[in-house]
Each structure stands twice: as C-alpha cells, then as structure tokens.
TrEMBL record:
Pfam family, one: Methyltransf_25
Matching InterPro entries: Methyltransf_25, SAM-dependent_MTases_sf
Any one biological process term the GO annotation gives: methylation
Domain Methyltransferase residues, every copy: 48-138
Descriptive protein name: Methyltransferase type 11
One of the record's GO molecular function terms: methyltransferase activity
Keywords noted in UniProt: Methyltransferase, Transferase
Length: 204
C-alpha cells in the first residue's frame, strides 16, 4: 500500500468511532439533511454505494432502511464497527480507486469527505469510474476540497495521529464533473471551523 493510503488507513483504524463523535459535536444534523435530499430522488430499493463509509453512522444506518446499501472503507477497524452498527447493510474493506463494478450498477454513489484522502492524481479516474457505475439519472453526492492543498497533519483529532489529504479547488472539481458528463444540481460551501469543503449534488 502507498504511504499516503497507509497513513489514512492507520489513522482511521486508530480513531475508530471517535472520528464520528468528534465531528458530531459541530454539526450533528448536516449529514441527515444531505441524505434526506438524496432519498427524495431515489426509487424504492435503489442500489447505493458509499465510498468511505466509516463506522456506518449515520449514512449507512439511514440509507439501508430504504435502499440496497453497500459501504466501502480502507480501514478494517471502521468496517468491523460498521458491520456491528448496521448489520443488515453490506460492507467491505477496499481501496475505492481499485474497485470494479459493472456499468450502471447503482442509482446513487456517495463520497462524503472521503475522496480528499485519495492522492489528487488518482481522483479524475475515480470520478470517471463513478460516472460509469451510475445508471442514467443516477446521483453522486460528494464533499470535496474548497482550495488546493496536499499534505499531512501530525496531530489530527488526537495528539500524534497523522492524517493525509489531497484536493484541488472547488472550481476545478466542478470542471472535472462537467467534463465527465455530470450536471451540477447543487454546490455550496460546507464550513468547518475557519475553513471548509465543498458540497456537490450531481446527476448523471
């Protein structure tokens, strides 16, 4: 495994569910609002894929009540917890950039704050793969970077916990999405302290 991906895996392995509880303090309802908007657009029993599912809360827990849900995460610890938290959903440990699915396999793909842990050079191919995996009119819900930056933080959430990110700016992401064939339904800044990320709701 590449060094950057090992940093991500080991960081989330170490954090476990403390990652979720840390961010729940700042905006516990943000995910629920985004997922409610997605749910309104999907047919019953739609096939949904989440890239970077963490411990399954809240996304897998909410969506698996209505849809056929599959969650992917690089961290074995997160997947173990997700299987315990949401037993009726399907989870597997995998690198999202190495996945293979048939074309038009899903009505929706979700990647909330997860693509930004993938080296930037690998992200355009991943976006193209997501487009192929989606059925016509399928939805892609993602949170990506707002400004361009690649690097590591040595004390993220906990002292001594190293984490890696890689992302370009929001306008570049939008151009990648449009060039791939997506229509931008919604885009807005998702604040996080003094900085933030960019939320996109896209449709094939």
């Amino acid at each position: 495994m590449e060094d950057s991906k090992r940093i991500v895996q080991e960081g989330y392995d170490r954090l476990g569910s403390r990652y979720r509880t840390h961010y729940e303090k700042s905006d516990p309802e943000r995910y629920r609002h985004w997922l409610n908007e997605l749910t309104k657009r999907l047919p019953a029993r739609a096939n949904v894929l989440e890239l970077g599912c963490a411990d399954g809360i809240p996304t897998a827990r909410i969506l698996s009540q209505h849809f056929v849900y599959r969650g992917i995460d690089l961290s074995p610890v997160q997947i173990k917890q997700a299987r315990r938290n949401v037993p009726k959903a399907h989870f597997e440990v995998a690198d999202m950039t190495a996945l293979t699915f048939p074309e038009a396999a899903f009505e929706a793909v979700i990647a909330l704050y997860s693509i930004i842990h993938v080296p930037l050079a690998e992200q355009p191919a991943l976006i193209n793969a997501v487009y192929r995996w989606l059925r016509p009119d399928g939805c892609f819900l993602c949170v990506v970077g707002d400004c361009e930056w690649t690097g590591t933080e040595p004390d993220w959430i906990e002292p001594g916990l190293r984490m890696y990110w890689s992302h370009t700016d929001a306008d570049t992401y939008q151009s990648w999405f449009i060039e791939t064939g997506f229509t931008v339904i919604e885009r807005h800044f998702a604040a996080e302290g003094a900085t933030g990320h960019t939320f996109f709701f896209l449709q094939k």
